[in-house]
Structures are given as C-alpha cells and as structure tokens.
C-alpha cells in the first residue's frame, strides 16, 4: 500500500521543506488541501520543489468555488509544471462554506459535481466548441488552448462521504479521496460498496492503460477494461513514544469534527452522540473549534485516527491493506503550537521512512 503525505508548514518555505522530506522518506504523493491556503498555489510550490518520482495533488480543491474552466486550466498548468505528476483532487465542501464563504451555488451537489467533472474533461480535451448543459453549463466557441498537453488525461479524484457522492467518484473519476476521519471499518462496510456500485456503471474504455496516468493503479475491483481506479484512504497520524501524548495531540482533530452538526449522525451511530453534543455546546459557548480535544475520550481518538507508538501506528496501517491503494497521512495540527506540530510531523515522516 502506498503511503502519501499531506505536509504541514507554518510558512510556504517550511511546507516545501516538509514535502521534500516526505519525498526522501519514500512517500508516493504529496497532497495540498484547501482551507488556510490555496490548494493550486500550494501544489505549484510542491511540484516545483520535488522530483519526478513524487506525485503532487490537490487534496482537495473546492469544486464549486471556481468555474470548471478555470479549474481545468489550473490543472493543465500544474501538470505541465510537474512534468505529468499532477492529480486533480476535488470536493464539494458543505453548503455553508460554499454559500457564505464563497458565494457559490450548492444546490444538487452530486449533479453539480458530475457536470463539473464533465466540463473539466471537455476543456482539457481541447475541442471546439466546448458545450455542456446541466446544473453547471458551458458554451465556448472559437477557443483552443494553444499549448501541447503533457498527457492525454489528467487523473481526477473526488472526495465523498455520502453514498451518492462516493458512487459518483467510482463512476466518473480516476480515484477517490477519503475524509480525514475514515476508519477501516467505514471503508470496508460503507465506502467500498458505494465505490463498486459506481464502478459498475462505468463503460469499458478502449484506452485503458495507454493514457499515461501514473502511478494510479487498479485496486483489482471493477469491470474488465475499465480505467484503473485509485482508492486513497486518509488519517491524522500522531506518533510518539508515549501513546497518551500521541492521542492527546490527535484529539483536537476529532473534536473539531465532533462539533460540526453535519457529522452528528455518523458519530452518533458509532456511539459517540453524547460527545458530539458536548462539543457542539462548547462551540456555541465560545470555545475555539480546534481546541475541543479535552472532550474527546481515548476510544473515540482510537476509532478515528492513527495514534500511538510507532509500532502501534504501523499495526493500524496494516488494517487498511486490501481496502485502499494508498493512505494519505497528515500530522496533528489543530490547536497545537507550531513547534509541537513540527515534532509530530517529523515523527510521522520517520514512520513513513520506516515502511518504504
């Protein structure tokens, strides 16, 4: 199983240094998220600073906050900059983020994302005219990108949590990226069946294997002749000789999501409804969303993160074997001072290096 890294840095220079360290440790892909930084700008910095054996992806960029055409142009530029190493990871985000933060439409998100992918692929294919009618539409005539593409096809990954969005990823994308809190049991019982349902709707592609997508590989599931598909699990990974310290570093990550109403049903079904209620109450009382870890019991940290000694974390990684092609690991950073995040990231990279 490939180990990917979502590097952290207080400055862009530090972020680039962390990506180089991940490359030296043997990571397969470095992923650039979009929350406090622009995912495409970060991906450009990572691509320019790393070598040809390391993939670079957006993990994830917001799909609705930009026009599909601008997203396609950014992807083409990044694929050129990286020498064919770029992976376009897209996700919808939640309604409030789109509408209140970005003034973006969010209605019918599954159909909207389907149209977004179709338009991006049409723009990257370079035809004239470019026409697509749907929840998102485009009509472009008399335009062609005058620069030769690095590859015939840039791989597109979709993030998804609900069954319809996950199935869409299986149907229209080249890969799926997990939410940061996605334990192996959820991957096995809920995600894989939805992905396979989507994959079953894919029409065989006569160009499979010849389009230069690398190193995306088939997980061994899906119809014969269908384009390879990359299943990328994700986890906050906190490594320390003292497992209690490791768990406390990761607890704020779980606390952040426990305070968000969108995840209440998921946590409630796992028996953590009371914890979520307490986190939400604390948030409404004025506590920072990234500093709720003291409300999170160890069993909840263990359920949703990889935290403990190096040996304990290696054992947890093995639980993803056969369920994912890769796992995107990120150091704990929520509510922690920068020096502690640096230490946690160094231990994470040591763990990656010990495996690769």
UniProtKB/TrEMBL annotation:
InterPro entries: F420-G6PD/mer, Luciferase-like_dom, Luciferase-like_sf. It comes from the Bacteria. Keywords: Oxidoreductase. Residues 10-322 form the Luciferase-like domain. Pfam families: Bac_luciferase. The keyword GTP-binding does not apply. The keyword S-adenosyl-L-methionine does not apply. Residues 200-222 are annotated as: Disordered. Its EC number is 1.-.-.-. One of its GO terms (molecular function) is oxidoreductase activity. It is an enzyme of class 1 (oxidoreductase). This is LLM class flavin-dependent oxidoreductase.
